[in-house]
Amino acid sequence: EIEIICVDDGSTDNSKIVIEKYKNEHPQLIAAYDKPNGGLSDVKNFGLDHAKGEFISFIDSDDFVDMDLLYTLWEKISCSGDDAYSFNYTCFGSPSSKLKTIELFKKMDILTSKDILKHLAKEVKMPSFLWNKVIKKSLYNGLRFSSQKVMLEDYEILTSVFLKINRMVFIDNNLYFYRQNSNSITHNVNVEIISENNITIAKREQMILEAYPDLITAVKIGRAYRALSYLTFLRKICDDYEIKQKEQKNLRKYLYLFLLDEDINIKKKLAALLLSVNLRIYDTMLRLYSKECF
Question: Interhelix angle for 113-122 vs 155-164, to 10°?
Answer without folding.
Answer: 160
